[in-house]
Design goal:
Layout (H helix, E strand, L loop, with lengths): L1 H8 L2 H22 L5 H8 L2 H11 L3 H21 L4 H4 L7 H19 L3 H16 L6 H15 L8 H16 L4 H15 L7 H4 L6 H20 L4 H17 L3 H17 L3 H18 L2 H18 L2 H17 L3 H17 L3 H18 L2 H30 L4 H16 L24 H13 L6 H8 L66
Helix pairs in contact: 3-4, 4-5, 4-7, 5-7, 7-8, 8-9, 8-10, 9-10, 10-11, 10-13, 11-13, 13-14, 14-15, 15-16, 16-17, 17-18, 17-19, 18-19, 19-20, 19-21, 20-21, 21-22
Keywords: Cytoplasm, Repeat, TPR repeat
Subcellular location: Cytoplasm
Organism: Popillia japonica
């Protein structure tokens, strides 16, 4: 209340004077709070940042840093112009428009050049290594910049021997690691890593201070990355130069041995075995797989042990070494069941089924293949499931084959039963009526196993079919068949079509090449045109015999 009264009593002139003084006090306080900018800071604010940095470096007489900065900006312009506006490189941020990256780069260049001017080459290399690691193992937009920094560091450290060339070897290793892991340039990475390995051999140098995480020695790390790069290169060469791929796998194994990486040795040896299998060096592949198996058993690696057994079984099956393959199949099944590994359970059942199928025991093979099929179906392995399904179908078909051969042989008997079987055969041909039941026993004796030469009894059966049961095929039936032919003379069967397979001479069917409604081969046909002229093919297994 008193203040209000005083203001009312105070003259207008005095009031204005007090307001001006208060305004001046505020202005002085705000001026004191403002930061004091240097000439360089004002220049950076007024000019494009890269131009301001050019002027700063020139004024400070840091000509090497100025030249390097110019080179990097010009290099990016050249790369953008070369690849064009539709490239990924064009979409990457530009150096001249990235203030944070420009400032970081210039500060590092300044520190490195100051160290160089004070003749501290080691410190100069350290600054470049830190810059290179930051850009090469950071944001992918600036990988290209880090690569150029590493190359510049290598050129400087190559001629510096004050540290025994530790920094030179470290720079080579870091560049090779970047080229392989980030840029995926395998061949240049291999060359650089080989240099790093040779330079660091026998020295306890490490790159942990630059990467900021624990590392083994530069020699060991170079060997480990080189091992991966050699295997990657071998994988590429597998497509057209398998022999060189095998050599690279052997080199990769030696690099793992140098680094005391026994798991890496096993991986390289496994890939070498794969290459040898593709190169038809199956014996060498089996030896490689066996060594891998021993390594994994010694290290108690369950999954890898199962995988090595699968590869070894494949090699033994290809070599025909049935005893060893069956032994390892049993071992694989036991290991997979003990450790609840459904994939390898399926693989063991599959290869056991193939084993029995190769030994002519489809009755034992089919149940095993069905178990494998179910195992692959449960884990959703479509590729192996479809392959196993095909093997199971073949095995089931071979189980039925003795029944089918028996059926054909019975058609030739000169009895009422033979005539009955002949009628069933024709009905099966015309209307697909079931000709035999699954309850009928199969003939699984050696009589059903193909021999080297056609058996006379088979030819007798054919002759009996022609001479005894020719009345079964009526003339209207022959006319219906002839309607499908352009020339009736085609009904006269060509004896030259009756061919013999070296392993399936006793398997006999009759076919005229006619297709059913679905377009598939009817597999069995009888066309009679004369007492002794007949074509008898059986799928792809046929017999060639002149029936005269």
């Amino acid at each position: 209340m008193l203040i209000a009264n005083k203001l009312q009593i105070m003259s207008t002139v005095k009031l204005d004077k007090l307001k001006r003084e208060e305004h001046l006090r505020r202005r002085d306080k705000m001026r004191k709070d403002l930061p004091v900018l240097t000439k360089e800071e004002v220049r950076r604010y007024r000019l494009p940042l890269h131009q301001a940095l050019f002027l700063e470096l020139e004024e400070q007489n840091l000509l090497s840093s100025l030249a390097f900065l110019h080179q990097m900006i010009d290099y990016q312009k050249y790369m953008r112009r070369t690849h064009g506006p539709n490239s990924k490189l064009w979409a990457k941020p530009r150096l001249v428009r990235s203030p944070a990256i420009l400032k970081l780069l210039v500060e590092g260049l300044k520190a490195a050049e100051y160290a160089h001017l004070s003749r501290d080459i080691a410190l100069e290399c350290d600054h470049f290594l830190n810059l290179g690691v930051y850009f090469c193992f950071g944001d992918s937009d600036w990988w290209w910049l880090g690569e150029q920094v590493f190359n510049h560091c290598i050129n400087i450290s190559r001629n510096y021997h004050g540290d025994g060339q530790r920094r030179f070897a470290t720079a080579e290793y870091l560049l090779g690691k970047y080229l392989f892991e980030n840029k995926r340039e395998i061949e240049p990475a291999i060359e650089v890593l080989r240099k790093a390995r040779m330079l660091s051999n026998g020295f306890p140098w490490t790159a942990s201070k630059y990467l900021h995480f624990t590392q083994k020695t530069v020699f060991v790390e170079s060997c480990l990355v080189l091992h991966k790069a050699l295997l990657a290169q071998a994988k590429i060469l597998e497509k057209y130069d398998m022999e060189t791929a095998i050599i690279l796998c052997a080199k990769a194994r030696r690099r793992s041995y140098d680094a005391c990486d026994h798991e890496g040795e096993a991986i390289a040896l496994m890939q070498q075995g794969d290459c040898e299998m593709c190169f038809e060096q199956t014996s060498n592949a089996a030896e490689s797989y066996y060594k891998v198996l021993l390594m994994h058993i010694k290290a108690n690696r369950i999954k890898e042990t199962c995988e090595a057994r699968v590869r070894l079984i494949q090699a033994y099956l290809k070599l025909g070494n049935w005893k060893e393959s069956y032994h390892h199949l049993q071992q694989l099944l036991q290991c997979a069941e003990r450790n609840n590994m459904p994939y390898y359970i399926g693989q063991s059942y599959r290869y056991m089924g193939e084993y029995y199928l190769n030994h002519g025991n489809p009755d034992q093979a089919t149940p095993l293949l069905i178990k494998a099929l179910n195992a692959f179906h449960e884990i959703g392995d479509i590729s192996n499931r479809e392959q196993t399904k095909n093997f199971a179908a073949v095995s089931a078909g071979q189980e039925l084959m003795p029944k089918y051969i028996n059926f054909i042989l019975k058609c030739g008997e000169d009895t009422d039963e033979g005539l009955n079987y002949m009628e069933k055969l024709i009905r099966w041909k015309d209307t697909r009526d079931v000709a035999w039941s699954e309850a009928q026993p199969s003939t699984e004796s050696l009589a059903c196993v193909p021999t080297a030469e056609p058996d006379d009894s088979v030819l007798d059966v054919v002759d009996s079919i022609i001479s005894t049961h020719k009345v079964v095929i009526s003339e209207p039936e022959i006319g219906r068949r002839a309607a499908h032919q352009e020339d009736s003379t085609d009904l006269i069967l060509n004896p030259s079509k009756i061919k013999a397979s070296p392993t399936n001479e006793d398997i006999l069917l009759i076919d005229d090449g006619e297709k059913d409604q679905n377009g598939s081969d009817t597999d069995l046909d009888i066309i009679y045109d004369g007492p002794r002229r007949l074509t008898v093919p059986f799928g792809s297994l046929t017999m060639q015999q002149t029936l005269l």
